[in-house]
Amino acid sequence: MDPHGVHEHEHGHVVVDWKVLVGVLIALLFFTFLTTTAANIEKWIAVEFDVVIPTWVNVFVAMSIAVVKASLVCLFFMQLFYDKFLNSVILMFCLLALALFLGLSALDLSGRGRVNEFIATPIELGGNGASAGLQSAFDEVPVVITGGKPLAVAAKEAYIEKHGLEAWEEHARELDAEHGHHEKAPEISSPNRSIPRTGLTPGLFDEHAPIHEAEHEPASAHDESTEEGSGH
Amino acid sequence: MSTINAHPSPGAKPMRWETYKHEHHWRSAADEFDAAKLGMWLFLTTEVLLFGGIFCSYAIFRMLYPDAFANGSGYLNWRIGTLNTVVLLFSSFTVAMSVRCAQLNKQRWLKINLSITLICAAAFLAIKGYFEYYPKLSAGKAPGAWFSYPWAHNPEEPIWWGIYYAGTGIHALHVIIGGGLILWVLVRSFKGIYGPKNYTMVETSGLYWHLVDLVWIFLFPLLYLIH
After folding, report:
1. Scanning A83, A117, B77, B218, which has its CA 20 to 30 A from the CA of B106?
2. Given this structure, which CATH class describes domain B37-225?
3. ipTM given for this complex
4. How many whole angstroms separate alpha carbon A204 and alpha carbon A8?
């Protein structure tokens, strides 16, 4: 079968209308706006109402919007909508391979705990510059040799050694004021967020009565408690 | 709505796209075009798997060290990321328009659209380099063994930075490669090589550029928006 009348048309390929392309661009910009707004709203809600929004909500919303945007780009900008279906099949097969890749890796990771018990080696989380010997590209930063300490700890100590603890603390305070992107963990449980505590309530099993102001002599325990029990 | 200006004034030398002959081992030019496009899609699947590896490492380290990652996204400015997203989306649009212009023999608009795409690519790299990479690297928020930021909140923060630089760095490399392809197509379009009978290179370079945009569509929320 002679596939195309070559000389009549330009391969018979579809010329996408410019209105479609502009429409898709506007849709993509809208979804970009939507995803950033959703993320910011979630952040605001978490701060304003002191709720913990589970991370998977954040991930799900962001990723689903990203999938929609990617579909628009693939279908209309890359013209899969107008193309031979074979190209779409190739892309879908690729996504299947990717799903296998990510899925099996996650499956492996979830079983690591048992394997690690057997092959536990001292691993310094965050790295310790053991690949030292790389000359730093920036002169003001010294060459990395941390002697087994985590990189983050070593960086902090190097700074303190060079500039002093006060300078480090002052800058840390400035950064906290500036960013504030990590809330201090609240000390007290609130209606929206309960802080689990472990251990005993302090002072619960103390032998003596709670020590009040200096006016009370630390007399014998019984006298004190009976005195207070009678609505002192 | 727009006519194909396929017939220049008589006596004029034909443009190179008009005298394009497909390779003789293909049945027709259409087959050659389809095969080129198929080949490009096959290559794009390998690129998707490349970035899939990076996303996989992101997912794994995120699962292992959620605090460091939640903290890490706070270092990034989502406004700059959104600006970069808008720049890339617009460049995707212009490259799709350039394919359309080649199909309709709008030579001037073909060059204009390709130039705009190139400018967007340069803008993306400039924004990333100047507003993101340069301040971060100067502050010591560097990948791997170069990490020297003294105010890290978690000991695992160098992992976050490693993932960040790996993802955005390899993406920036693809932006450079894609920009190079677009530049080559732009230069050749000045010689009248591309037109309705021959726009294969415009199409395939456009596909590569769309992939760059696609990757950024996923990279942006994962790094900047999820906390």
Report:
1. A83
2. mainly alpha
3. 0.87
4. 94
